[in-house]
Amino acid sequence: MRFNNPPVNTLSLEFLTELVISLEKLENDKSFRGLIITSDRPGVFSAGLDLREMCGRSPAHYAEYWKAVQELWLRLYQSSLVLVAAINGACPAGGCLMALTSDHRILADNPKYSIGLNETLLGIVAPFWFKDTLVNTIGHRAAERALQLGLLFPPAQALQVGIVDQVVPEERVQSVALSAIAQWMAIPDHARQLTKAMMRKATASRLITHRDEDVQNFVSFISRDSIQKSLQLYLERLKQKKG
Amino acid sequence: PDASAGVAVMRFNNPPVNTLSLEFLTELVISLEKLENDKSFRGLIITSDRPGVFSAGLDLREMCGRSPAHYAEYWKAVQELWLRLYQSSLVLVAAINGACPAGGCLMALTSDHRILADNPKYSIGLNETLLGIVAPFWFKDTLVNTIGHRAAERALQLGLLFPPAQALQVGIVDQVVPEERVQSVALSAIAQWMAIPDHARQLTKAMMRKATASRLITHRDEDVQNFVSFISRDSIQKSLQLYLERLKQKKG
């Protein structure tokens, strides 16, 4: 699956919906047991959540958007497919979240390609299920530090902290992803799927059992004047950088 | 900009070794409360004014040869200190400039960031088992959150006190620096944390720590009763008295 939502694979409501539909098709197609997620946009894996969906909109829209974000995470995190992330570009926030749902993460060795959950830098807070996914990957202490400081790890540090599993030369990312996925797909599929579900069930349940509450919390939080101001300021700065 | 703006420094000074007596615990909690309520402070560095020791930990004389009511009062105060430190909205940095066993280690573990002076005499860890007692579950939870389950299982059972190199390797501290640089490194570190939008940082910290804090909060009275029963046991009292005797002999 090569993400192609120009310019930077931002997770707009439309793109989220496309991704979920594609995932569902793959899950139902017995001829596919593995999925490599990667980017078709130069220099970026995914820039993450679309701030324009979270800024200056109605509460009903925020709710619809957040449900779609939850849906993508649940589908990726609980996928019965082997999921490998071939991270060939910058990977902040929502992009990092997608990578973290994978069974295996390969990052291209390019100092411009950092990965992490940097929400605090934008004045917002990563939801608890983003936090859970990160803790499951790098441990509690490292996650506590990474989340509060909004750290974006360049390749060497990303490997050291364990947020990715491999760092390889940029031109080899896709071929290494194919080798890696073959290793996972060599395992008896039934046993592998049940084991994956067992590992991830508790974490997924924490969102599933509080899904509506989580949407309401998001809507309340994102609607706050102070948060809207933070986001608008950030969007302004982004525009100035481009122009 | 003044690197120390908005940063308070608390220098433990309870001679001789910053033992956490009931009186000292109460002072610490009061000081913490004042800082939390004072909007001009967003960060706190905890460190020691006593040479060679950060804090020797819980005061065994509060736990030995006293009444059950006293044990209960003491334990509530220990719980209160941990809850206040662990859930502090301030950025908390521990500048560990001395030996840091048991209760001292617990205070360091509540911090957002731990810096240990590179002195082989300054070891850090939860060594309760060496005294014949057991670290409470919330000491254990804080340790597991910091160094992981397996390392905590080993460290707690063996009562390990990690000297600086091993402390860094196992992850019980985040940095080891030359002794004379501990305070300045603490100031640099705290500046990095305080550069983050405070609202977002506080909510994130609370989200990370809520479950662990709740486990004590929802069982607080039960935990006090368990402590009182445990510490009142003849065998435990004997253990502690023996340990106190040995300490007296070492001094004398």
TrEMBL record, chain A:
Q: What is a GO molecular function of this protein?
A: delta(3)-delta(2)-enoyl-CoA isomerase activity
Q: Which UniProt keywords apply?
A: Acetylation, Fatty acid metabolism, Isomerase, Lipid metabolism, Mitochondrion, Transit peptide
Pathway(s) served:
Lipid metabolism; fatty acid beta-oxidation
Sequence intervals crossing the membrane: none
Q: Which GO terms describe its biological process?
A: fatty acid beta-oxidation
Assembly and partners are described as: Homotrimer.
Identify its protein family: Belongs to the enoyl-CoA hydratase/isomerase family.
Protein name per Swiss-Prot or TrEMBL:
Enoyl-CoA delta isomerase 1, mitochondrial
From TrEMBL, chain B:
This protein's major location comes to: mitochondrion
- Is Acetylation found in the keyword set? yes
What are the record keywords, sorted? Acetylation, Fatty acid metabolism, Isomerase, Lipid metabolism, Mitochondrion, Transit peptide
One of the record's GO cellular component terms: mitochondrial matrix
What superkingdom does the record give?
Eukaryota
Task: Write out the catalysed reaction.
Answer: a (3E)-enoyl-CoA = a 4-saturated (2E)-enoyl-CoA; (3Z)-dodecenoyl-CoA = (2E)-dodecenoyl-CoA; (3Z)-hexenoyl-CoA = (2E)-hexenoyl-CoA; (3Z)-decenoyl-CoA = (2E)-decenoyl-CoA
Location relative to the cell: Mitochondrion matrix
- As recorded in UniProt, its EC number(s) are 5.3.3.8
Lipid metabolism among the record's keywords?
A: yes
The cross-references to Pfam families, in alphabetical order and at most eight, read: ECH_1
GO biological process: one example: fatty acid beta-oxidation
Q: In which pathway does it act?
A: Lipid metabolism; fatty acid beta-oxidation
Which Gene Ontology MF annotations are present?
delta(3)-delta(2)-enoyl-CoA isomerase activity
Top-rank EC class of the record's enzyme = isomerase
- Give a short account of what the protein does: Key enzyme of fatty acid beta-oxidation. Able to isomerize both 3-cis (3Z) and 3-trans (3E) double bonds into the 2-trans (2E) form in a range of enoyl-CoA species, with a preference for (3Z)-enoyl-CoAs over (3E)-enoyl-CoAs. The catalytic efficiency of this enzyme is not affected by the fatty acyl chain length.
Complex and partners: Homotrimer.
Belongs to which family? Belongs to the enoyl-CoA hydratase/isomerase family.
Q: What is this protein called?
A: Enoyl-CoA delta isomerase 1, mitochondrial
Query: What is the scientific name of the source organism?
Result: Saimiri boliviensis boliviensis
Taxonomic lineage per UniProt?
Eukaryota, Metazoa, Chordata, Craniata, Vertebrata
